[in-house]
Here is the input.
Amino acid sequence: MKGATALRNRWQISPKTSEAIAAYLFLLPTLVTFFLFVLGPMLAAVGLSFFDYNLLKWNSSPEFIGFDNYRQLAEDGRIVSIYQTTLKIAVAEVALTIGLGLLIAYLLEQKMPSLLRSLFRMTYFFPYVVSVSAVALIWSYLLHKDFGIVNYYLGLLGIERISWLRSSQWSWVSIVITESWKSLGFNVLVLLGGLQTIPAEFYEAAEVDGANGWGKFRHVTLPLLTPTLLFLLVIDSINAFQIFAQPYILTQGGPGDSSRTVVMYIYEHGFRFFNMGYASTIALSLFAIILVLTIFQFRLSRRWVFYQ
Here is the structure.
């Protein structure tokens, strides 16, 4: 590296030290961003959880209240149902996007013209790059009870109109549909990459052993794809627990709390009720749950993830 060589010649330092300094200089923008926008806010949230801090009272100092926010969290009657709703949405969305993503990726890997394959890939990936608010607005019209296109086609099948966005039974389902449609393209792209890393020799050996299409998928494709599936399971789970825009725009968390997620609850306490202390406490509880879930997924992966 020319930069490392010039630095070494000027200050008469060892090659190893100059390369280390150059590496840290390249890492500096990322480290500064991490400390300012990740670690800093996390430490601030931990500190605020011990204070009663109202954003509207900007000219007054936060009041230290110890563990009162944590006691309020333990006694909050809504938080349990909101976590249950978030878990329900997360499980359904992760299962749907990984399952459909695997099916679509496997079909796209079959023999077809390269131009057609590229067109399908672009089609499935396009919703992922569209803004979350735009996706939510699109689906708010598609799922409208009276003039939505989804209910129109259901009517052609003889199914009564469903109140997707105003029914406690269906509101969370609308969130799952919207979020799955947006996230599916990312899963398809990652799974396609995973499928392309499987050596053809494994399939040839399976054919020699008399395996049919299902046998090759079950005994070759699926086991060798488990590292990719683990990656998607962890990433999708983390993202699913942090859903905010879709329920906020589509259903506003209602009716009641039937589609209200934890991040929405954090937002409401922090920026609607201006209670940043309690909002930080809820955020820390969400962080702890995601951390425990991620550790559990990695521990459990030892039993079902196979590496070449």
Notes: The longest helix spans residues 15-48.
